[in-house]
Recover the amino acids of this structure.
């Protein structure tokens, strides 16, 4: 066998082995994320032990530390994943509507209704603000659902439905109101109450009506 071909075969074999190891690492990370998410949703942050998460997916505690460094690191990754899904849910609800104003209302309602999801309720709304701290939690919110709110308001201002004004402070005011409402729904006995959600949505509609231009 020519030396060049032999070297090529060795390189291909090395690349194949590296690719297989990368796939295994990715699969291990996904498994840890999934198990961590299930346990954080069911038991809360303080009820989860990282070594038990690792054992449940058939890897060592060292492997869990390699991927996430600590229980807090795993929790942070789970929060980011759930927050991203929440943002997608808000965007999908808005896209079902054609009228820009109804898109805003649909997205806001989807955000509030997400509190009935155990993972969103316990992980994102109840534990994340205290475990991660308010600033980091807000930053994750900005990257997901809050971003869609800002984009929706910018579109409404451009369309003349909302009076011309700086969008950032308006978006922060509305985002703060919805986060407070979602936290209230999540922490109370009414977390899964359709009636409580409807009352909250009605109150939010009243706030939104206040920013809409008359006759728009």
């Amino acid at each position: 066998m020519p030396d060049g071909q032999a070297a090529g075969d060795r390189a291909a074999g090395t690349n194949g082995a590296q690719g297989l190891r990368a796939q295994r690492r990715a699969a291990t990370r996904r498994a840890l994320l999934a198990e961590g998410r299930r346990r954080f949703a069911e038991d809360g942050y303080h009820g989860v032990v990282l070594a038990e998460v690792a054992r449940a997916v058939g890897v060592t505690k060292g492997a869990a530390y390699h991927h996430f460094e600590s229980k807090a690191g795993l929790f942070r990754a789970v929060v980011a994943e759930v927050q991203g899904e929440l943002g997608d849910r808000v965007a999908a609800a808005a896209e079902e509507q054609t009228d820009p104003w109804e898109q805003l209302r649909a997205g806001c309602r989807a955000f509030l209704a997400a509190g009935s999801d155990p993972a969103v309720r316990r992980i994102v709304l109840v534990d994340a603000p205290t475990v991660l701290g308010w600033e980091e939690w807000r930053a994750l919110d900005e990257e997901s659902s809050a971003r869609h709110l800002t984009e929706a308001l910018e579109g409404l201002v451009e369309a003349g439905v909302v009076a011309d004004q700086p969008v950032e402070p308006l978006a922060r005011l509305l985002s703060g109101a919805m986060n407070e409402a979602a936290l209230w729904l999540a922490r109370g006995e009414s977390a899964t109450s359709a009636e409580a959600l409807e009352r909250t949505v009605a109150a939010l509609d009243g706030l939104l009506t206040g920013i809409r231009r008359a006759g728009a």
